[in-house]
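To: structure desk
From: M.T.
Subject: fold request, one chain
Message: Could you run this one when you get a chance? Sequence is below, nothing fancy, just the single chain.
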Amino acid sequence: MKYSMSVREFLYDSKEKKINYEEFLKELQRELESLQKKFSLFQNIAPALGIERQQPSLYGLPVSVKDCICVKGVQSCAGSKILQGYIPPFDATSVARAKKQGALVIGKTNQDEFGFGTFSVNSSYGIPKNPVDPSRSCGGSSGGAAGLTKALEMPHIALAESTGGSISCPASFCGVVGLTPTYGLVSRYGLIDYANSLDKIGVMGKEVYDTALGLSIIAGHDARDSTSAPKESEDYTKYTEKDDLKGVRIAVPKEYFKGIEKEVEKNIWDSIEKLQELGAKYKEVSLPSTKYALAAYYIIATSEASTNLAKYSGMRYGLQEEIKGDFNEYFSSVRSKGLGQEAKRRIMLGTFARMSGYRDAYYLRAMKVRTLIIKDFQRIFQDFDIIAAPAMPILPPKFSEIEKLSPLEHYQMDILTVPCNLAGIPHLSVPCNKTGLPVGLHLLGNHFQEGKIIEAASALQKVAK
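Reply: Done. Structure tokens follow.
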């Protein structure tokens, strides 16, 4: 393939005017359509790719967008049938900022409905298959984004989103880099909500450099988002230039190695040893609140989801039907047909947790546990720069194995990604297995310390090549 190159190479060749864009776009269109037939990675592909402005700093770099992030004039459904036909009249801030720098939006990647899932098997637009082994899951909920990043040999970065691990999980399962920033660093304006206090837009790429570049473009304060942090963006690619990790202090939490598969454990420890060879020092620590994180997360996330999804009633946008009966009958009819089984389950769980008489016992108590988890992380970051752990407790499972899991067993798979998402701290999954199925090393940093985890991941990726 002529244009099989890295993002860095594409940007350099574009700057030097070595890219034949007409030829590049034809090859890209063919490749995307071929991958879609094989792996079902998209909700939709841009019908006719064309670069209006081959301008710095991205020069028409292909960028895919997770289906829950709005793109002007492109159907955006968050993986749900209930939003089928919804075409936003505006771009999400992250998309607008990428376009402003010359990005080419190539389509909307497939996902679990509204982000409800760990394996991307809950989409109304097909199930994305893992390019490493099509009989296995891409991970969720940003499965299409991770699968495309792995399969597409041409330069590309993916805009994705995480609520409880939806970037790190698929990045780990597909063997790509997934960067989830501090909550509030990237604007949520134009994001179709799952849980307002947890949702974060991030970036996926083949290399750490790619995710650092993407974050540099989409991060920064946005007055249209009330949760946007008053912090301007910076050039995060500068953190990929260092080759050693002298003086870096790494914490390894004991609780994160309980019940994980042996091959995962082996690869994680091999990677921690490599970090030590690069000059870092590690020490095992304890994060005792970990055992409470999963329960707290699912109470908070489903409570917020049940509130957010109440607006999808067939009146304003998305799926509609002929109006019959009273409003309860009409709304129930539309929601019964438009929402999937997992979405209904989480709405009911969240509605129960918010009911009068239960709010104090469940939701408010979960929020107190969340505070304990944050304090736990802050205690560790007083003495350490980053935390290293497995991203997922298992290797990417086969679909035949997933079918046998109960809903509770599905939820338990998020045990390692939920704590950092509850705390709103930045985290990054970087591939750490050269042979066999992918394994992701999870690097966690303190709030707004993205540079430290990018630096460690980049140094590790360089020696792993």
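Reply (cont.): The first helix runs from residue 7 to 15. Let me know if you need anything else for the meeting.
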